Protein 1
Amino acid sequence: MQFAKRMDRFGEGIFTKLSDIKRSRLERGETVIDLSIGTPNIPPGKHIIEALCSAAADERNYVYALSDQSALQEAVSDWYRERYEVELNSKTEICSLLGSQEGLAHISLSIVDEGDIVLVPDPCYPVFADGPLLAGAKLHYMPQKKENGYVIDLQDIPEHVAQQAKLMLVSYPNNPTSAMAPDSFYVDLIAFAKKYDIIVLHDNAYSELVFDGKSCGSFLSFPGAKEVGVEFNSLSKTYGLAGARIGFCVGNEQVVSRLKILKSNMDYGMFLPIQQAAIAAITGDQSGVETTRKAYEYRRDVLCDGLNALGWKIDKPEATMFVWAAIPSHYDTSEDFVMDLVTQAGVIITPGSAFGPSGEGYVRMALVQEEENLKQAVEAVRQSGILEV
Ligand SMILES: Cc1ncc(COP(=O)(O)O)c(C=O)c1O
């Protein structure tokens, strides 16, 4: 059998290794506390599940959806107006996605050709690089450095790269670093994109998971944003709908319309009951959003306070469901540390190197376990003595 050379651009890497170790530990009856993959474990509100179930009980809802229902388009448009003060044309500026991951994986196919340059944050959520790679793009990494608050420094991008670049991905609050960007960053970003004629994709998956009384809005609320790009949003974390797979790409009409054409050749739209669940989520009782936010904030405190008390100096994240921490100084690589942590403490986390070259020296811990398990993880780290030189 012969397969596409394209597949050489992707590896199974560390995640397969970690999941093999997890399986063998569980087979041996040893405990594992998995803080590696960001799968949310907070369920959707009852009214959302009821909307899904009642639509699923209607036999008329098993046809191909083909496109988004008007009620869903209106709901998203209202949601953006109320939540972010952004006006969207419900017919032309909104496209639903089978999870924002799906849209992020595919959209580059509608924007870049083989060899085009795409600007990608480093470290980044892996599909930001994998989507453009699938389309044959060349990546130029934009480091997100600690000294810059983990925010991209646009001045670092060489002039000749900016001239050639066609597309740029950006996301704050950020996975994996959990950083937020100041308003001035978005103002500069839009000016930069206009100057060099670059399309911007902003991923806003964590806009509702912002802690300590702070909040964040939308890239599209900045003047000129809609002229240069689109925003991806997801119902996975905000409404606990990760497995139902629903997200949106909204903003620039040309970008959205090309994505719609591409997708019409790939899928037949979203299962109608999931469209109904999404409508219930974004138009219904919003108290669950606050409960979810508080749950992550509390978990953040439990994990960070616990690890800090052991002498591992970790900054508390301002947002997201991730803790980003420098590895202990007696380790050379994040992968070495992660491997020792799982074998000696049974705690699985992700090495920063899995998110790009600038992630080396860091690890990411996902707040996807209840308080008790997080306390147990801290205790396991203490007992292993792994933080001691
Ligand atoms: C930054 C970011 N974008 C997108 C996604 C994917 O979300 P969805 O479930 O909508 O595909 C994730 C999931 O972890 C994420 O962290």
Note: The chain has a mean pLDDT of 96.
Protein 2
Amino acid sequence: MAIEGKDEIHSGRIRLGMVGGGSGAFIGGVHRMASRLDDHFTFVAGALSSTPEKALASGKELGLDPERTYGSYEEMAEKEAAREDGIEVVAIVTPNHMHFEPAKAFLEKGIHVICDKPVTSNLADAKALKAIADKANALFILTHNYTGYPMIRQARAMIANGDLGDIRLIHAEYPQDWLTEPAEREGSKQAEWRTDPKRSGAGGAIGDIGTHALNLALFASGAELESLSADLDTFVEGRQLDDNAHIMLRFKEKNGVRPKGMLWASQVAPGFENGLQLKICGTKGGIQWMQENPNYLWFTPFGEPKRLLSRNGADALEAATRVSRIPAGHPEGYLEGFANLYCEAARAIRAFRDGKTPEDVVYPTIEDGVIGLAFIEACVASSNADGKWIRLDV
Ligand SMILES: NC(=O)c1ccc[n+]([C@@H]2O[C@H](COP(=O)([O-])OP(=O)(O)OC[C@H]3O[C@@H](n4cnc5c(N)ncnc54)[C@H](O)[C@@H]3O)[C@@H](O)[C@H]2O)c1
């Protein structure tokens, strides 16, 4: 039944398409799960792989309508834009060098874009995409998905409320171990493109996970990165990109305090799987959060005992409860956090349908994407100059 003032096609679930995410791919499947968790989206079209044959086979595997399983993103953008029931949003989940052109094609057709990180494979493209997104009649959402965790929202709200005082120290680390050996020469598709500068860009670990750690640190602390000094290493022989990075950070002054920090990103750290961790300290207190135990946040008001805050527990702030689904003690994890970005996207897209901008929507944008690429390029420039301090070019 039609809703007054709207037709059926625009009143129901949001129609989602996907570029990438074909058979054997990693993050495309996560996006599909995240998009369905809260019933806001329906997955109706895809250009799922790098060749038309693989794309068609992947569409069949996922039960997509063959008419809406496309051999290329160009064909998909063209044909979906022409359909009355065409997709309203596309998820771009291809390797980094294959974000810019599809994002441009869909934005120019007025189709919203949910793009994975890093937003492009170089800073010039990121800036060009920002110019396109700024002009487009469509939204751009970047899946720095760790910003969706309720306890990160809690930390962010506490810092904004002044519970930590003025921020002095911002430390982020993201150690992994899966590239300790040359997996790229042992048949791992994910390792192959991530260690190839043509597809990954100038950053290895700094691009793949360093950008996540930086984005999270900036998101939670509200700080702005000014400059950095980086020491990048490639420990695995023959690898073309960094697999470990130690980076010192200087942030812009706020309330007379200039925060300092450090970032460690590594993919050659045995014993660490997805050890993303954040420590932020101010004049009145500090917080600590670990991605592998995401329902908890340590908070220490200076001079008092440490407190372990839990998701949906006592002291939970509205910023965190609005992205929590179930009571405290029932764990929510990676998929729910990812799905929170899809919920934010859904709120924004539904408001967009009605010509409105919702006030309470929080998600990373193309601006965050530009910062990520500026970070990568500054790290490479600094490390090549033996750790020289480099200002971020944003
Ligand atoms: N947010 C996160 O936590 C997270 C995690 C993993 C990966 N990522 C990002 O997601 C992206 C994909 O990573 P992945 O690990 O899933 O890679 P992957 O290699 O597993 O999958 C990439 C997919 O893209 C397809 N593809 C390549 N070129 C294409 C084209 N021209 N048209 C259509 N499809 C094409 C491949 O066939 C494959 O299906 C990368 O940008 C990566 O940085 C983000």
Note: Residues 6-145 form a domain with the Rossmann fold fold (CATH 3.40.50.720).
